[in-house]
Write a structure and sequence with these properties.
The chain has a five-stranded parallel sheet. A three-stranded antiparallel sheet has the order 1-3-2. It is built from ten helices and eight strands. The chain has two domains: 85 residues, Winged helix-like DNA-binding domain superfamily/Winged helix DNA-binding domain (Arc Repressor Mutant, subunit A, Orthogonal Bundle), CATH 1.10.10; 98 residues, Oxidized Rhodanese, domain 1 (3-Layer(aba) Sandwich). 52% of the residues lie in helices and 14% in strands. The chain is of the alpha/beta class and 225 residues long.
């Protein structure tokens, strides 16, 4: 009996390491950003509005739980998700929160009320990509696009979109996407495109959901700056 209890205590203690590592909103944000592409600590800190020291502390907690891996690039350390299982853990956590927490449900209801028209399912978008009759626009930062993107997608980072509208076709459907279900760039890009007369939609979810579902992706090169 003591052996059985000792085994369970040790096993659940190890499981708890992962739970403890996830128990901070900024650490979830680190995982979300690294699902888009590898980064060094300075880039993570800048995007998250943290000091480098604070971002580094969160990274070390995630590394201790074996959720991140790292490589050296000259004098810098580049961090990435340990594997796709970490992304699936993050998406599963979101799914449970969406199902069980009224506060998350309310957030998403408010977002739906703000406008959900013109959303392509990922299944339909993949078919349209295969048929070649749609222009797919990735509005994430270039670093993330270069790490991986939807097949045939063109990179037009959201902050550049107002100045690059003339590059987009007016005789084809445009579908925009960004990081994932809780990124708002695609919705804001959709509003802008429609204001300028484009026939535009966005995809449900984004890069994270597409990648998780093992759909075709394109890669160019890894960029860490």
């Amino acid at each position: 009996m003591d052996t059985h209890r000792s085994f369970k205590d040790r096993a659940y203690g190890e499981f708890a390491r992962v739970g403890q590592a996830l128990a901070h909103p900024k650490r979830l944000e680190v995982l979300d950003l690294l699902a888009q592409g590898p980064r060094h600590v300075d880039a993570l800190a800048e995007e998250m509005g943290l000091s480098v020291a604070s971002a580094s502390q969160h990274i070390q907690v995630l590394r201790h739980a074996k959720l991140l891996e790292s490589t050296r690039d000259g004098t810098r350390t580049i961090y990435r998700l340990a594997d796709k299982g970490v992304l699936r853990l993050l998406l599963a956590l979101r799914s449970v929160a969406e199902t069980r927490l009224a506060e998350v449900d309310q957030l998403n209801r408010e977002r739906t009320e703000a406008g959900e028209a013109g959303v392509f399912s990922r299944e339909i978008l993949q078919r349209r990509i295969d048929e070649g009759d749609v222009c797919v626009v990735d509005v994430r930062p270039p670093l993330e696009y270069h790490h991986g993107h939807l097949p045939g997608a063109v990179s037009v980072p959201f902050e550049q979109l107002p100045d690059r509208l003339e590059e987009l076709p007016r005789d084809r459907d445009i579908v925009v996407y960004c990081r994932g279900a809780y990124c708002l760039w695609a919705e804001e890009a959709l509003d802008l495109l429609r204001q300028h007369g484009f026939k535009a939609s966005r995809v449900a979810g984004g890069w994270e959901e597409w990648w998780d579902e093992e759909r075709p992706v394109a890669n160019t090169e890894e960029v860490h700056t």
